[in-house]
């Protein structure tokens, strides 16, 4: 299982963190694993599907794992959620807010009408979410669907969300990648793998690989952590 210390380090309170990935990368499964660890004080906002489906999936997973307790988190499906609506929710007693998918948010009817370019509005949304996280000292995780990479086997930061300031992105983006989708040698009947790719202050990409239970789609454990310079292959192993 993913550790609480790892979650707090990768998704700190007082900051927006963007968890981005391609289709079927395992973004929703990953954030549900985060919820499993944090358990209480979590608000899950689904902007794409009925949040009750997530609750049923959660309960099925827990039954398969033969755990009796039910998760103590709250869900809400609010189509077209605005930043102003989110601020009202943040004032409640939640320490973690997960927004799936964050790019479906808007600034509000009056504000959104001012933008001819959707990219500019999204830039404002991301920046305002980060300000809200700081103002209320909340952990905000924005799940985002990233576009296609030129090399899907090795996704790169420089190809993501180019309308955002590079420094803002470097500090707040985590790419979720499922290499087994492109490499059949990594597939097995019971276990899959996902990678979380972040960037450190030296501009090196940190790649944390986790094993995943194919049956429950839950994280089993971290199996490796490596770093690579941009444009290079894996370098040395990192010890925590």
Question: What does this entry look like structurally?
Answer:
The structure is a single chain. By secondary structure, the chain is of the alpha/beta class. It has a single domain (4-175), classed as P-loop containing nucleotide triphosphate hydrolases (Rossmann fold), CATH 3.40.50.300. Helix content is 30%, strand content 27%. The protein has 7 helices and 9 strands; from the N terminus they run H-E-H-E-H-E-H-E-H-H-E-H-E-E-E-E. A 9-stranded mixed β-sheet has the order 3-2-4-5-1-6-7-8-9. Helix 3 links the parallel strand 2 (42-46) and strand 3. The model is unreliable at 234-240 (pLDDT under 50).
Question: How is this fold's topology laid out?
Answer:
Elements: H1 4-10, E1 15-21, H2 27-38, E2 42-46, H3 51-64, E3 73-77, H4 83-90, E4 96-100, H5 109-112, H6 118-136, E5 139-145, H7 166-172, E6 173-177, E7 191-199, E8 204-213, E9 219-229
Parallel strand pairs: 1-5, 1-6, 2-3, 2-4, 4-5
Antiparallel strand pairs: 6-7, 7-8, 8-9
Characteristic terms for this protein:
240 residues, Rossmann fold, 7 helices, globular, disordered C terminus
């Amino acid at each position: 299982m993913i550790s609480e210390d790892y979650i707090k380090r990768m998704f700190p309170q007082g900051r927006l963190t963007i968890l981005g990935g391609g289709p079927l990368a395992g973004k929703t499964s990953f954030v549900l694993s985060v919820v499993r660890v944090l358990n209480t004080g979590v608000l899950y906002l689904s902007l794409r599907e009925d949040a009750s489906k997530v609750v049923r999936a959660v309960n099925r997973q827990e039954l398969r794992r033969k755990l009796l307790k039910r998760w103590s988190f709250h869900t809400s499906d609010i189509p077209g959620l605005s930043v102003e609506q989110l601020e009202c929710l943040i004032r409640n007693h939640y320490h973690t807010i997960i927004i799936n998918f964050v790019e479906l948010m808007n600034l509000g009817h009056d504000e959104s009408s001012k933008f001819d370019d959707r990219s500019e509005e999204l830039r404002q949304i991301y920046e305002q979410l980060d300000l809200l996280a700081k103002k209320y000292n909340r952990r905000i995780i924005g799940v985002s669907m990233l576009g296609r990479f030129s090399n899907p086997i090795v996704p790169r930061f420089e190809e993501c969300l180019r309308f955002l300031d590079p420094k803002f992105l470097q500090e707040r983006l985590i790419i979720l990648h499922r290499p087994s989708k492109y490499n059949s040698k990594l597939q097995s009947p019971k276990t899959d793998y996902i990678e979380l790719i972040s960037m450190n202050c030296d501009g090196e990409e940190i790649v944390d690989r986790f094993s995943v239970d194919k049956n429950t789609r839950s994280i089993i454990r971290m199996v490796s952590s490596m770093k690579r310079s941009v444009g290079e292959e894996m370098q040395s192993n990192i010890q925590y």
